[in-house]
Amino acid sequence: MEQRLANSWRQTVNEKNFIVNALLSELRVDGRRPFDYRKLTIKFGKDDGSSEVQLGHTHVMAIVSGQLLQPYKERPNEGTLAVFTEFSPMADPSFEPGRPTESAVELGRVVDRGLRESRAVDTESLCVLSGKLVWAIRIDIHILDNGGNLVDAANIAALAALLTFRRPECSLGGEDGQQVVVHPPEMRDPIPLIIHHLPIAVTFGFFSNENIMVIDPTHHEEAVMTGRMTATVNANGDVCSIHKPGGEGVNHRVLMHCLKLAHVKAGDITAKIKDAVEIYNTQRALRKIKRHSSSVALDVGGTPAKSGEKQNQVDGSQLPQSKFKDEASSMECDATSSGQEQNNKRDGVSQKFIGGPSSWDPYSECVNPDLLKASLASHGPATQRTQKGSRSETKAEEPPQEMKIDSSPTDAGLAAAQNNEGKTLKDAVKPKNKRKKKKVSSNSGN
Amino acid sequence: MEFVSPEGLRLDGRRPMEMRQIRAEIGAVSRADGSAIFEMGNTKVVAAVYGPREVQNRSQQMSDQALIRCEYSMANFSTGDRKRKPKGDRRSTEISLVIRQTMEACIMTNLMPRSQIDIYVQVLQADGGTRSACINAATLALADAGIPMRDLVTSCSAGYLNSTPLLDLNYVEDSAGGPDVTVGILPKLDKVTLLQMDSKLPIDILENVVQLATEGCKAVANYIREILLENTKQLEYRRGV
Fold first, then answer.
1. Could A242 and B97 be called an inter-chain contact, meaning their C-beta atoms sit closer than 8 Å?
2. Could A240 and B199 be called an inter-chain contact, meaning their C-beta atoms sit closer than 8 Å?
3. What ranges does the record list as Basic residues composition bias (chain A) (predicted)?
4. What are the boundaries of each domain within chain B?
5. Contact B185, B193 (CB under 8 A)
6. CATH number of the domain located at residue range(s) B22-239 in this protein
7. pLDDT tens sequence across A381-393
8. What is this structure's pTM?
9. Residues in chain A closer than 8 A to B94 (CB atoms)
10. Which of A8, A80, B168, B200 has the most CB atoms lying inside 10 A of its own CB?
11. How far is A100 from chain B (nearest CA, A)?
């Protein structure tokens, strides 16, 4: 059906006959049996809500994003869900850049129908202010490699991305309760979407010979087959959508048989998706804990008052900004590992560090060894002192450093990240005598 | 909201297994090679077929079969609120694709290589079931144009509301949020060529609904055959036979 464009690849008659004849003996060209799926791999990106799915040679990416928008007039209490597809020209010689082609629109609509009409994603929980502001969830599906059966892969990618997407928490504030405050992820954990069930798309290919039918056709089989059907079913036995857009006619019996097969396959795929999401979630949780401890280590033993303040700022990004000192002390109580040496190094380096990357100069002078010694000396008793909550004593011991302190918590959060990065990058440039200790600190800290 | 009253009557007074009144007319567009108007209740659709004719875009020419093109559009005045974009939106693109592939299954394209057949379908009044009406109108128009087909393609929709399978939904029943199943069959061969369904349904109920829609399709097929026979008689009469 894609044989309309000049750029398209045309299949030879020999190839076509070979595929059909092999199927008559229940063999497929890639060695599968007619009702087998190809190997499925689900990977996730580093941000929440992005997934990459490989189904055999077919490679698809899905990204989920959310925005606060006005709801539709007919449904003021519900959030919206929109699916956009991008058939990248690198995926297939017949894909052209520009307007989505018929098949791109069709794919988007099949995935959309499976998710929206079957109420897989709970849209009522996406409402923030009825009639005014709701979360508009946008799923972007990018096709990277067309190895056949894009619909199934795109559907799995969309589901995986939806399951790992986290939207910022928002609360109503202001005098009349009409102001919406969106909390940044550093302040409050973003929350996942509510997904009731997973509609899995299973595509069947029909051929001119009635006895042949395949599941998960490859690109070559797609060029041979005369009809196809995509059944979106969930693991509970409900049929969420059926899409058989014309093509070869089939019996009722065959249709029902296909639906039952689809139900079985959906169970398998649902299990795989859930496993992959589980692994991702545990990794994410681990990452969060790690980040927490490394930023805590920053201020433990914070002898230089200014740097201590800077770290307070950093901590302030994770907690509400009210009382820096109390927070700092509470953070120290929570402090996990970090030996004294590491803290020294960190302090020393952080003294040097002034705000964002623009102020990082690889050729600037190294940490002042005198300062270091001073911090080393004062470091032992310093932890106990700071735990008591008083900073002023330690302040006197260190020459005050000019530190550009970013005001907003998000910038401080950024600075913290850059702080960590700046340390490792700087370490790479620093002369060797400093490097050993720093390397230890940077390795254990990051 | 109650779609089936306790007595078993729907909102427009029909029984659950009852179709709306159908009416068809052949030869509505004089310049086209074949055309037809098809009405299912308040849904009114006009289809025009041009072809077989020379392929306009040489790069798309196929040496072994005819090229089928289809365009589905809804008139601005067809729905309750005036539509801003009659065609080019995603729903129209999808329906165009669906109608094209449905008709491709029944047209004997290998008899007309290197040629093009255009099917234009326009919805004049939309009251649910536009997809089905378009396919029925296209079948009539193709028959009027004398294009060789394996069989007629007829289509009908069915739904499931208030635990009852309902045949031939109108707009109110369609927008109720329940399942909507559109079936297109080749009646003589008894094969399902088009099947689209949205919203959730358990498999066994789906089977009943699909069966019901298939029955509706067969009723439409009988009517279309009558219309075509009548049309042929008229042509003979005009020829003076």
1. no
2. yes
3. 431-440
4. 22-239
5. yes
6. 3.30.230.70
7. 544 444 444 444 4
8. 0.75
9. 102, 105-106, 109
10. B168
11. 10
